[in-house]
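step 3/5: co-fold with magnesium ion
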Amino acid sequence: MTSFTQKDLLETPIDYLKGVGPKKAELFRQDFNVYTYDDLLHYYPYRHVDKSKIYKISELSEEGTFIQFKGIIRNYSIVGQQRGKRLVATFVDDSGSLELVWFNSIKWIEDLLKQKRDYIIFGKPTRFNGRWNITHPELIDPQNQSDSPIPLAFQPLYYTSEKAKKGGLDSKAISKLMITLITQTKEVIPEILSDEILQSHKLLLRKEALSAIHYPSDNAILSKATTRLKFDELFFTQMRLLKLKLITSKKIKGHHFAIVGAHFNDFYHHHLKFELTNAQKRVIKEIRADMGSGKQMNRLLQGDVGSGKTITALLLMLIAIDNGFQTCLMAPTEILATQHFENISKQLAGMDIKVEFLSGSTKVARRRAIHEQLLNGEIDILIGTHALIEKEVTFKNLGFVVIDEQHRFGVEQRAKLWQKNQTPPHILVMTATPIPRTLSMTLYGDLDLSVIDELPKGRKPIITKHLFEKNRLALYGFMKSQIEAGRQIFVVYPLIEENEKLDLLALMEGYDIIATHFPLPQYAIGLVHGKMKATKKEFEMQRFIKKETQILLSTTVIEVGIDVPNATVMVVENAERFGLSQLHQLRGRVGRGGEQSYCLLVSGNKLSNDSKQRLAAMVNTNDGFEIANIDLELRGPGDIQGTKQSGMLDFKIADLVKDEKLIAYTRQLAQDLLLEDADLALEKNMRIKNHLAKIESHNLWWGLIS
Ligand code: ADP
Ligand code: MG
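step 4/5: write tokens
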């Protein structure tokens, strides 16, 4: 017996568990990141096998674990070609039928199926196109003794490593140790949620859940255990995020924007050329209220490409100016910053507001003048690139900062902006990067969120088509007809080799082809790419904006933000090489005026499954959030830009894609709870408070965020 008290029992080093010697303990630490009893309890199986009974096909109602059926193969055929080649069989029992699919060992399976026998099949049924099917089921011959089912009803399966297997820690060994562990600890596993939450959400007790996740007695309890443990993960993540937010908002005072004044009203009534959408109005109200609350605002403004975030931000900047503050707008590229500068200068023409531009290429003398005018308060709006956050750039009284297309800016840069005034400015981060709500709720959970979920009136949905090489002449014909109608066209080439020289070559080849089909003097073509000098790039962009060129060829430099309402066609070459959110961004460059616009995705004939799905998604929907969700499903959250190092997405059991509802739900719950009991001082919230303290002591990095 060890001398650990009950309370410490779960913190016992794994070495002490019966059956674990020093060698296995070392393996647990190295290969499984398991140090204590508690860690091992949270080492969940990746699936269970249920050989407790033979199921009927008609009993299937939801996707679950691996189960077995008994019946015969009615027919089968081999379909598809090359990598898509598969054997599809219809399996029937006396209650119904389902489909079996094999992609591998087709020949071998076919020989087996020719024998026409009764089979027990074992696998995980999934629903596809309204039909149940099992991919790569195990075929068990009921007559064959050695194939007989494992005696234990529910057998957990655990991930392990080659090294651990050699050291005696295969899945079976782990599952044995788990029995020992659960028997020994179950009664001391503390509850961490309040009785109130447990009861109102009918959640399994934590000790029941942690035991049943390994050894459930049936599917129903397994599903309840899964829900409970997901709930814990998501709820406590949200509690931590929201507590952080609460602390920031309590500790940090913000500028109080009390009035909506002359500048705002003058602009709104005399300069604004269109009616704001309801979503824009709502968002302006939300943000105004936030900036008038006395707290410092940290807010994310999401809106699909073309939803009109810029004008929304401009109106808010005018409110800041009306309250006697300076503002700045930061964009990720020189082109985009320039465009913002020009648009905003134009829109504010005739008003008594001084707008300036600052970027890395601003000449020294000019830069000095700007620095001075920022300090003496002459400049009201400063627009520019990263150059804005440099140390030398100091303001007289910066009150409001807008960051456009934030995915290119890190958290650190955001923090630098805070230091630009004694009282930190309000910060509005605008993004059209389709980030699914579930992700933004987690990743930006410490920011408040405003969403423009409506496009300006009169926009016709962009028509998207997927074309192949063989359609090229038709494509050029179509482009000509659009040019004849007075429209303009983007043609975008991807980064192919991640090698600037070769990429440029691909672009130049493209240019030659287009130039032969669209000859001077009838047509004028412009060209921009990343290797060009900023001034030259700018010159080419301006020619396009002024309609001196009809076709603009480019690499993805135009991906973000460019606004040329007369451009109605976006041609993407080698579209299969682009990511989904990138394609959506590119498409957002057209469809900005009243004319029907088109996005034409040109690809090679050979496409991977993923590419096919991406292109199909683009053709099927214009909705940025839907695109974001498909992207998340195809790539997983780890790949979404900027999320990799966050550590926040490191869930053991919750799933950012599938558990969207639970994420929203637990966030709301955490919000309500903190509203009632911000310091978690109430007796009923004691357990939650203790558990949070425990998590925080384990996660030092947490304090470094935001
Ligand atoms: P994004 O959200 O992609 O940054 P922009 O702010 O660039 O969108 O707006 C896209 C285009 O729509 C711009 O030309 C802008 O002037 C125009 N626009 C914005 N709001 C409206 C509106 N309410 N009605 C009509 N056009 C609008
Ligand atoms: Mg924009």
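step 5/5: annotate
Residues 185 and 693 are 22 Å apart (CA to CA).
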